[in-house]
Amino acid sequence: MGRLGEYFKMAIDSIRSNKGRTLLTMLGIIIGISSVIMITTIGNGLQGSIKDLYGSVGNVMYVWPGEDAESSPEEITETDMEEIREIEGITGVTPTGSAKGKLTTRKGNFDTNISVGNADMESTDRLDILYGRFFTSSEADGGSMVCVIPEADAEKLYGAKNVVGQKLDIEVAGSIQEAEIVGVSKSQTTSGIMAMMMGNTDKITLYMPMNALNVWGYDYSYTAEIYISAEEGVAADYMEKETMDILKRNHSVKNEKIFEAYTAAGEQDQMTSMFSMITVFITVVAAIALLVGGIGIMNIMLVSVTERTREIGIRKSLGAKTGSIMIQFLAESAIIALIGGGIGIICGIILGLVVCAVLSMTAAIPWSAALWATLFACGIGLFFGIYPARKAAKLSPIEALRRE
């Protein structure tokens, strides 16, 4: 054990005597390891953001006219929606629509997105009411000018969260109508990268009865698109099959493309799979950098063997065994790779944390990947150090002493 420690001490002394050259040799390892750690950290953060996003969306299915119904889409009737509500595990069904408008308060002028539906929006949109209430079925049917606003948007408009009872002047298509805030919901947060991908903006969000848009000339007497929410654990395939069976039966159609549907769970799986593929691809590219770094280690160790030929000859003439010489050079290459790997891990974690912070994601440091990266770095050092070490160990003492 003492002899092995001596070999490592000699290796470290050799590295210290060539700091600049050693650092340049480490660059390939540092870049490769840091890239793997950074990409894995960002990838974990993205997948966590996707999980949080669709967790907030909940178990929801969207149904719309299929490609074979575009010319004359079938109307989804109130009877259809009532029967869908009777499916076991279904918690809400609402027609869906939207409008864009403007708001004016003492805080200034704001653009707004108005999401409309019936009273089941509280369930389908996973709205957690903090103050007041959600609008009722009678208000939805009667087109009452009432609305619910997220707490973050309430603070933007009024500088306070509990704004129940406040009146808003909403301008849509040049016409201004007054609406009363009856409820304030908990804001749904989305990471920066997910917000950009989904087109989220800083616009104020309002939830209103669908029939309230009639005062602005919208006609939602015809329902073509609906949202359906279900309890957690209800299978997406089950939701889709039961819903489609009802719609096909009620509309006397057999064509699979008259109505189509997608679920939040299905979209989550697709996005997770896409980001996983991107992460794997970039990791492969980073692995190539590691390979280049390993070749750099082998090259510098060959140079080191050439420069220290006389030293090797003296040691062998004094009785150093072939295995001792080989271990010395293997230790040197492994230490170079290990130090480079350590620096790469630190750089990768820092870069990953910075990127996640910029994109407003929760960073998930891959400690298991860091461990494997460390072992891989050592393996690279040993693997690419074998040839130079064998070359040094096989030098003839007499030939080595003859060289200057």
From TrEMBL:
Keywords: Cell membrane, Membrane, Transmembrane, Transmembrane helix
Bilayer topology annotation: Multi-pass membrane protein
Compartment list: Cell membrane
Residue intervals of the MacB-like periplasmic core domain: 22-242
TM segment ranges: 21-43, 277-305, 334-361, 367-387
GO cellular component, one term: plasma membrane
Signal peptide per UniProt: none
Top-rank taxon, per record: Bacteria
GO molecular function: transmembrane transporter activity
Record-annotated ABC3 transporter permease C-terminal domain positions: 284-397
Family matches, as Pfam families: FtsX, MacB_PCD
InterPro entries: ABC3_permease_C (IPR003838), MacB_PCD (IPR025857), Macrolide_Exporter_MacB (IPR050250)
Principal location class: membrane
Presence of keyword GTP-binding: no
Similarity comment text for this entry: Belongs to the ABC-4 integral membrane protein family.
Descriptive protein name: Putative ABC transport system permease protein
Organism encoding this protein: Hespellia stercorisuis DSM 15480
